[in-house]
Design brief:
elongated, 89 residues, mainly alpha
Length: 89
């Protein structure tokens, strides 16, 4: 594995743990695809630093278990915002 890929995987792992970030947030921050983030933290990181990979996995598992709640809140916010716009018209 190339050095820059290992470095990126470690930086991504640190970012996810520090910010409790989702894969999508991390991808936006690092300017790479969600697939790249996922591959870095699930496959490559396991080879580089298994303990760190385990910590990242915990954060990602929490994010996964909460995603349906976040989606519902986002939808609610969207429709509340639309109602406010109509009332202003």
């Amino acid at each position: 594995m190339k050095d820059y890929i290992e470095e990126r995987a470690l930086e991504i792992a640190d970012y996810i743990i520090e910010h409790k970030a989702t894969v999508r947030q991390t991808a936006k921050r690092f300017g790479v695809s969600k697939s790249t983030i996922h591959k870095d933290v699930t496959e490559r990181l396991r080879e580089i630093n298994p303990a760190l990979a385990s910590e990242v996995r915990k954060v990602l598992d929490v994010n996964k278990s909460e995603r349906h709640i976040r989606g519902g809140l986002a939808t609610r916010e969207k429709y509340l915002h639309q109602v406010v716009k109509r009332e202003c018209m």
